């Protein structure tokens, strides 16, 4: 236990709620502020992408004994189901036997996390707009409007867990020597829905992450507990096959008939959902430093927002909490060292998962229907099974291990260079699992 402090967390999302539980368990008084209403009282807006919980996320939950409670609302997905046009369904398994990522509704999980935090004694202040923070003394400034009267809320520490467009970071950006960048993809996304069968069962295989890869655009579907799937259409904002081009019912229906024919019978509300749900943007945001003195720290998307193609936004945010908690145990009341070590440890890994997430769009949208890529994955799995000490595939290193993301990126690049050479071997298609190929990889690893 540390010396009890009065700590504010700005943002009641997944990372903010879990961080509040950790801080409360460490003996602190914890208040969470959010400008939105209590998520347990609102209908969802149709702009979510289901979460894919993996090892790093589960560790953060298990370390405070919440994993089992959350597993009740999660569905294991052991494989990708690839829907190519005019070809049979193809399954690509993620890891070894029993290794799965888990589909969880973002709204369902967030509601659960807020309730669990309240049960710990965390106090939430919803519909409270935080406009600014005085960095030097961790004072929050709250009010109805940005230009109106503000109330001062004094704390010992403030954590900004208020997302990619964080108000806490906005204040930190106005210091000198603060680096900040944001980059929007020219690809956006829109939520669609596959309802359950009449008996409540799933219309598609429920233990798969379904992908309809079409190069510049793709559709994905993740299962929900009620038998439905949350679908997300990713495509450019402008151009030939784009959100801009799908402007009326006739064009939309023809587009889906041409490119996603297998969905026609399973997305009955396609037109209604498409024109009702917003088209959302995708942004990568980087900044540094993440802390100010021993008073203020950023966490999760507030300091490292990433695109969702590796399914690691939440997992990376939860891992921030794991590392922060370990440092709190190690350094006790030395918050200056805790904050310094936290940002030095996490920044390279946040940058690495941002890069990996960006790259994974190409893998999901085009490579999963490329025969050479599928053969390469088969060779990697075969070699990894024979030599687990020599080769852990990149996806497994990111998703089914706790090794640093920065290490995964570095080793993944080295593995790619090796596989590029292996794929040049004459007749690789016929001798992919031969002693010759095995020896070639071993030599290249040296």
Automatic annotation (TrEMBL):
SUPFAM superfamilies linked to this entry: FAD/NAD(P)-binding domain
E.C. designation(s): 1.14.13.9
Pathway named in the protein's UniProt entry: Cofactor biosynthesis; NAD(+) biosynthesis; quinolinate from L-kynurenine: step 1/3
Catalytic reaction annotation: L-kynurenine + NADPH + O2 + H(+) = 3-hydroxy-L-kynurenine + NADP(+) + H2O
Ranges of residues in domain FAD-binding: 6-355
Protein origin, superkingdom: Bacteria
Keyword annotations of the record: FAD, Flavoprotein, Monooxygenase, NADP, Oxidoreductase, Pyridine nucleotide biosynthesis
Requisite cofactors: FAD
Top EC group: oxidoreductase
InterPro entries, A to Z: FAD-bd, FAD/NAD-bd_sf, Kynurenine_monooxygenase
PANTHER family: KYNURENINE 3-MONOOXYGENASE
HAMAP family, per the entry: Kynurenine_monooxygenase
Family: Belongs to the aromatic-ring hydroxylase family. KMO subfamily.
Its job: Catalyzes the hydroxylation of L-kynurenine (L-Kyn) to form 3-hydroxy-L-kynurenine (L-3OHKyn). Required for synthesis of quinolinic acid.
Name this polypeptide is given: Kynurenine 3-monooxygenase
Lineage, uppermost ranks: Bacteria, Pseudomonadati, Bacteroidota, Flavobacteriia, Flavobacteriales
Gene name tied to this protein: kmo
């Amino acid at each position: 236990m540390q010396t009890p402090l009065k700590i504010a967390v700005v943002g009641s999302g997944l990372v903010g709620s879990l961080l509040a539980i950790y801080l409360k368990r460490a003996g602190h008084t914890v208040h969470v502020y959010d400008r939105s209403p209590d998520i347990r009282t609102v209908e969802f807006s149709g702009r979510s992408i289901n979460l894919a919980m993996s090892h790093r996320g589960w560790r953060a939950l298990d370390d405070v004994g919440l994993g089992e409670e959350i597993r009740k609302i999660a569905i294991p997905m052991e494989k990708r189901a690839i829907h190519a046009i005019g070809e049979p369904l193809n399954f690509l398994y993620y890891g070894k036997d029993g290794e799965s990522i888990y589909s969880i509704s973002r709204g369902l999980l967030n509601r659960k996390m807020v309730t669990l935090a309240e049960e710990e004694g965390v106090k939430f202040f919803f519909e409270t707009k935080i406009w600014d923070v005085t960095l030097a003394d961790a004072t929050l400034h709250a009010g109805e409007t940005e230009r109106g009267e503000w109330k001062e809320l004094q704390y010992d520490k403030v954590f900004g867990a208020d997302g990619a467009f964080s108000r806490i970071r906005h204040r930190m950006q106005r210091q000198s020597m603060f680096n900040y960048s944001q980059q929007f993809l020219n690809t956006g996304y829109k939520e669609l829905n596959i309802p359950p069968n009449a008996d409540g069962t799933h219309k598609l295989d429920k233990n798969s992450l379904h992908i309809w890869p079409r190069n510049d655009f793709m559709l994905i579907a993740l299962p929900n507990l009620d038998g439905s799937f949350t679908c997300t259409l990713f495509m450019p904002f402008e151009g030939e096959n784009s959100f801009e081009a799908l402007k009326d019912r006739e064009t939309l229906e023809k587009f889906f008939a041409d490119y996603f024919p297998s969905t026609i019978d399973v997305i009955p509300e396609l037109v209604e959902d498409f024109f009702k749900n917003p088209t959302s943007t995708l942004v990568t945001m980087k900044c540094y430093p993440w802390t100010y003195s021993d008073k203020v720290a950023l966490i999760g998307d507030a300091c490292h927002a990433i695109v969702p193609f590796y399914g690691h936004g939440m997992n990376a945010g939860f891992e921030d909490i794991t590392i922060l908690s370990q440092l709190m145990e190690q350094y006790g009341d030395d918050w200056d060292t805790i904050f310094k070590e936290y940002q030095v440890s996490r920044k390279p890994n946040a940058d690495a998962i941002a890069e990996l997430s960006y790259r994974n769009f190409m893998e999901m949208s085009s490579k999963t229907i490329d025969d050479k890529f599928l053969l390469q994955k088969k060779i990697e799995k075969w070699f990894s099974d024979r030599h687990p000490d020599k080769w852990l595939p990149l996806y497994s290193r990111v998703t089914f291990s706790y090794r640093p993301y920065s290490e995964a990126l570095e080793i993944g690049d080295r593995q790619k260079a090796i596989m590029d050479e292996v794929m040049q071997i004459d007749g690789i298609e016929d001798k992919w699992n031969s002693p010759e190929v095995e020896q070639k990889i071993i030599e290249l690893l040296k």
